[in-house]
Write a structure and sequence with these properties.
It contains 17 helices and eight strands. It is an alpha/beta fold. β3 and β4 form a beta hairpin. α1 runs antiparallel to α2 and α13 crosses α15. The two termini are about 15 Å apart.
Length: about 575
């Protein structure tokens, strides 16, 4: 690296600090090891010589161009792939080779040009051995300047276009060399080739790159003694560009811009993946909001219908109270005074006329309510199952992609599968008879405990029958005790009012306790139903919300990184 000005040293320190900090953050963002290594290599390149990388199809003449630059035939040339590894040419007092990595060698040569610039010879981009092209692809991010070699007889082929697009994505400066000038005889043909390459390169890169048309073969012959071929080779402008036009400031600018171009490529790729993930998560959050809304509506609708069903139960007792009033009005009369003293008959009449079929009707209503609870619970589970299945099916193809992140996709699908399995298991194993019986027993036990009644048989009707029988006995006691009262004509109305009041109090107590106990038992069951669905979704919900928060943080960090890159690139470009 050449001596830097104070300003350049300050920018270099800022850039290195920023890039190292970015690399640490990218680790936390789940960036691939390959990308991290690429960024690390580009950071290391800041302290190395300027790196000039030759790329192009095999047989385009990459090695020939290098030999012409160096003035000696130091690299093999041929019509078949001759370069199978990355060769980094550096200055050395003596010619030597050193293996520095798998499929990568440093070639030390006593050539003055290499004291200022390291030149890299790469395998052909359309080599039969695909691994050769991969070697070149992976090395491109390290280049400070790319010399793209194409052949005048096969200019800008499809494989070259694709590879140049790869170079562009890394933000590299590209110089195009059209080799094998000597095989064309007509000037018009030469201009057509140059215009074709220039137009296609401009469309692909967005800028018009420098283009040099040369004959590397003639240039090497000229340097080796056939001096009259030098002008014909047209190699002088390319050599002058590399040796003179690419001066110290230009080299430093490209050297500093290189890792920033690599960073831009990585940041944009990760940002694209984060945006894809954010979109998926936003749709997941919408799904969760929809489920929450459905749950809320489900609870409201269920609570409303529950109250209607409980009102039907309550009406049974209100009707019983009404019949009790009519019973007392009918019995507490002087005309029926003889009936008042017949306790057994009075108890039988009370049970038949007042209690009547209350136990059976309550049993029926409660059983209908339980059936409704079970059915609505099952329907809600099916609704969740279908909704999750539709969500997976609708996005299965779209979310499978490296930009979203394989670990994220795996975790998300695993949790969606878990919800689906839980819901399906509930639906498939839902034993309606068992659930119904369980709720009924729970309700019966709750009522029995509330009313301090021993359960002799299953069913709320049994409890109500026992209570009604006891009540009938109590009422008969009231009527019998009123026998003395019939001796006074004015005492009968007072006794009737007392009997009705006591009956009202007993029925009110029974109705209130029964209704409140049933309500508590059934509300508990409804809440349990909702909680089971929420518990099934909870892991997925936590995952989505955590990932959404993390993704927003990543996007914020990447936005800041892009701003910092833009600022550094602007400062460096203005030198």
């Amino acid at each position: 690296m050449k001596i830097l000005t104070h300003e350049q040293e300050q920018v270099l320190k800022r850039e290195r600090d920023f890039l190292n900090d970015l690399r640490v953050k990218l680790v936390g963002f789940g960036t691939s090891q390959e990308s991290l290594e690429t960024l690390g290599q580009s950071i290391a390149q800041l302290d190395d010589l300027f790196l000039l990388v030759m790329v192009g199809e095999f047989n385009a003449g990459k090695s020939a161009v290098i030999n012409a630059l160096l003035g000696e035939k130091l690299l093999k040339e041929g019509v078949t792939p001759t370069t199978s590894k990355i060769n980094i040419l550096r200055y050395g007092e003596e010619s030597n080779r050193k293996v520095v990595a798998e499929n990568q060698e440093v070639v030390f040569l006593p050539v003055d040009l290499l004291s200022q610039v390291s030149i890299v010879d790469t395998p052909g981009t359309n080599a039969i051995v695909r691994y050769h092209e991969e070697l070149t692809r992976h090395f491109v991010p390290r280049a400070d300047l790319v010399l793209f070699i194409t052949s005048i007889d096969r200019p800008f082929t499809e494989s070259e276009r694709i590879f140049m697009e790869h170079i562009r994505n890394w933000g590299k400066k590209v110089v195009i060399v059209i080799n094998k000038l000597d095989i064309l005889q007509e000037e018009d043909e030469l201009r057509q080739v140059e215009d074709f390459v220039r137009d296609n390169a401009r469309d692909l890169l967005g800028v018009a790159p420098e283009i040099f048309t040369v004959s590397a073969r003639l240039a090497l012959r000229a340097k080796q003694g056939e001096e009259d071929l030098w002008e014909t080779s047209q190699f002088a402008p390319l050599e002058a560009y590399i040796e003179n036009t690419l001066d110290q400031t230009s080299q430093i600018k490209l050297k500093f811009l290189n890792p920033l171009g690599v960073s831009t490529h990585l940041v944009e790729n990760i940002s694209e993946g984060a945006k894809d993930r954010s979109q998926v998560l936003e749709e997941d959050l919408a799904l969760l909001r929809n489920v929450d809304q459905q749950q809320e509506i489900y609870q409201k609708d269920k609570a409303k219908e529950f109250e209607l069903r409980m009102a039907e139960v309550e009406n049974i007792f209100l009707e019983m109270e009404q019949r009790g009033d009519e019973f007392f009005e009918d019995r507490f009369r002087l005309a029926r005074v003889l009936d008042l003293i017949k306790k057994d008959r009075m108890q039988t009449d009370f049970e038949q006329e007042v209690v009547a079929n209350v136990p059976q009707r309550v049993d029926q209503k409660v059983n209908e309510l339980i059936d409704w609870l079970v059915e609505s619970d099952l329907r809600q589970w099916k609704s969740v199952t279908d909704y999750i299945a539709d969500r997976k099916s609708a996005h299965k193809e779209r979310i499978i992609g490296s930009s979203v992140g394989s670990e994220f996709v795996y975790d998300r699908n695993r949790l969606l599968d878990a919800i689906g399995r839980d819901a399906e298991q509930v639906v498939e194993t839902y034993d309606k008879e068992y659930e119904t019986q369980k709720i009924a027993i729970d309700a019966q036990n709750a009522v029995a405990a509330s009313l301090a009644v021993e359960i002799g048989a299953v069913g709320l009707g049994t409890i109500i029958t026992a209570l009604a029988t006891t009540m009938a006995a109590d009422v008969t006691g009231i009527l019998t005790a009123s026998l003395v009262a019939v001796l006074g004509f004015f005492i009968i109305p007072a006794s009737r009012r007392k009997a009705k009041r006591e009956l009202h109090d007993r029925l009110e107590e029974l109705r209130t306790k029964l209704i409140s106990t049933l309500r508590a038992a059934f509300e508990k069951e409804m809440n349990h139903s909702v909680e089971r669905i929420e518990e099934a979704i909870a892991p997925y919900s936590r995952f989505v919300r955590a990932e959404a928060a993390q993704t927003e943080e990543i996007l914020g960090e990447l936005k800041y990184a892009r701003m910092e890159i833009d600022q550094l690139q602007s400062e460096i470009s203005n030198w």
